[in-house]
Design brief:
This protein is an alpha/beta fold and about 400 residues long. It is about 40% helix and about 15% strand. It folds into two domains: about 1-175 and about 365-400, ATPase, nucleotide binding domain (Nucleotidyltransferase, domain 5, 2-Layer Sandwich); about 190-360, ATPase, nucleotide binding domain (Nucleotidyltransferase, domain 5, 2-Layer Sandwich). The protein has helices at about 40-45, 50-75, 90-100, 105-115, 135-150, 160-165, 220-230, 240-245, 275-290, 295-325, 340-350, 370-380, and strands at about 1-5, 10-20, 30-40, 125-130, 155-160, 180, 190-195, 200-205, 210-215, 330, 355-360. The mean pLDDT is about 95. Bound molecules: 5'-O-[(R)-(carboxyoxy)(hydroxy)phosphoryl]adenosine (KG4) and zinc ion (ZN).
Length: about 400
């Protein structure tokens, strides 16, 4: 089965193609192409993602990235065979016009670059339908609808968080164009998703069967990194900036005694709350800046903040893993790039849950990508007709919102 994946839920425009098979239930995968275009430079000056700017960039980039992805995938029918765009019937053009009427720039590029190529040998189109930024999601969804109509291929809608979950099945360093076996996940599985938009603990009894057992009541972990980075005058995205500042501080080297709260670490539930931590950083800064320069405060505050977030995430994950007696633990989402989080979780799972397997995602795939969307589609296999497809900005994992 060849699946073309499309991801536009936030600030990455991504398209990937995979070939995946189920020889006697041990699926093997070949990544034929995996293209990710980050919009970070456009959003950086605003200190966060601007939804309409994201939509504009997705509109500009989807068609060229599709062409690149198909070329890289070397699929039959997608290389040199070009049809005359004039051959396309007027009635078909009218449908395309109506599918992409809210994305005029994408429509123009679609007619110019996509309509002329013959349908490639793909079996399904996978697209993120939620959760995410509404205008950004719709751009990818409408692009997938147009492709599905033009090429007569089914669409598989994918929940973005499911993509982050299945990423770990690709192992540590998934190579391009080589067939390899997917890693097995022993059920039941506990998933910690920590990204810019989500912080959730999910109990997965089998692929497709999820219960969200805890989530953030306010800011997501990645969002807290981004907001604290802003307070410290660091760039966007804040996660890598804070991690780099924290890495400069050796244990005991700072004379400043800084201590931040570990919000909800002892609460009996599995929820999180990070907005108070950000406020605590704000007050701390106001106080300390009376005596110290911001430059000298960045390192120690970053370190204490990162320690606080990681401690809370790991403590709750371990407690949930024990309570639900899971056989495997998965980490996913943009914050999974954080070295301290990866190392601490690894250490604590080994120490406290020696018979549980921890699956960490490849660091090259912790951020948003379309490979994970194509992979998740393989497991969901729920096809939907293009005319019925919708973007759902607040889509949840545990409700049948697809
Ligand atoms: O999953 P993702 O790419 O996008 C969403 O779906 O939200 O996550 C992006 C988030 C940002 O908030 C970013 O600051 C955070 O992941 N992030 C990190 C690191 N790298 C990215 N947070 C902590 N440490 C990192 N090294
Ligand atoms: Zn994400």
């Amino acid at each position: 089965m060849v699946i073309l994946g499309i991801e536009t839920s936030c600030d990455e425009t991504a398209i990937a193609v995979i070939e995946i098979g189920d020889p006697k239930k041990k699926p093997r995968i070949k990544i034929l192409s995996n293209i990710i275009l980050s919009q970070i430079p456009f959003h950086r000056k605003f200190g966060g993602v601007v939804p309409n700017l994201a939509k504009r960039e997705h509109q500009r980039n989807l068609a060229p990235i599709l062409i690149r992805a198909l070329k890289e995938a070397e699929l039959r029918n997608s290389k040199s065979e070009i049809r005359n765009p004039k051959q396309i019937q007027n009635s078909k053009l009218q449908v395309l016009n109506s599918i992409l009427e809210r994305e005029p720039e994408l429509l123009e590029r679609f007619k110019k670059d996509v309509v002329p190529i013959r349908p490639p040998q793909v079996d399904a189109i996978a697209v993120t339908t939620g959760p995410g930024l509404e205008p950004a999601l719709w751009t990818g969804v409408n692009f997938a609808r147009a492709l599905s109509f033009l090429w007569k291929k089914p669409i598989i809608p994918v929940n973005h968080l499911e993509g982050h979950i299945y990423t770990v099945m690709l192992g540590n360093r998934p190579a391009l164009k080589q067939m390899f076996q997917l890693q097995e996940l022993k059920p039941p599985t506990l998933v910690l998703i920590a990204s810019g938009g989500h912080t959730e603990l999910i109990l997965m009894r089998k692929p497709g069967l999820y219960s969200v057992i805890g989530e953030t009541r306010d800011d997501a972990a990645g969002e807290a990194f981004d907001k604290v980075a802003r307070l410290l005058g660091l760039g966007y995205p804040g996660g890598p900036e804070i991690a780099a500042q924290a890495a400069k501080i050796k244990i005991g080297s700072s004379k400043l005694k800084i201590s931040l709260p570990r919000p909800m670490i002892k609460s009996p539930d599995f929820d999180f709350s990070f907005s108070g931590l950000k406020t605590a950083v704000r007050y701390l800064l106001q106080d300390l800046q009376k005596k110290h320069s911001l430059k000298n405060l960045r390192g120690p505050i970053s370190k204490e903040f990162q320690d606080a977030v990681v401690e809370v995430l790991v403590a709750k994950t371990i407690r949930a893993a024990k309570k639900f007696k899971v056989k495997s633990v998965i980490l996913g989402g943009g914050v999974a790039a954080n070295k301290l989080l990866r190392e601490t979780l690894e250490k604590e799972v080994k120490r406290q849950l020696p018979s549980t397997t921890l699956h960490l995602p490849a660091t090259s795939l912790t951020g948003d990508n379309a490979l994970m969307i194509a992979l998740a589609a393989y497991f969901s296999k729920k096809e939907k007709h293009w005319s019925k497809l919708r973007a759902i900005a607040n889509m949840r994992l545990d409700k049948k919102s697809r």
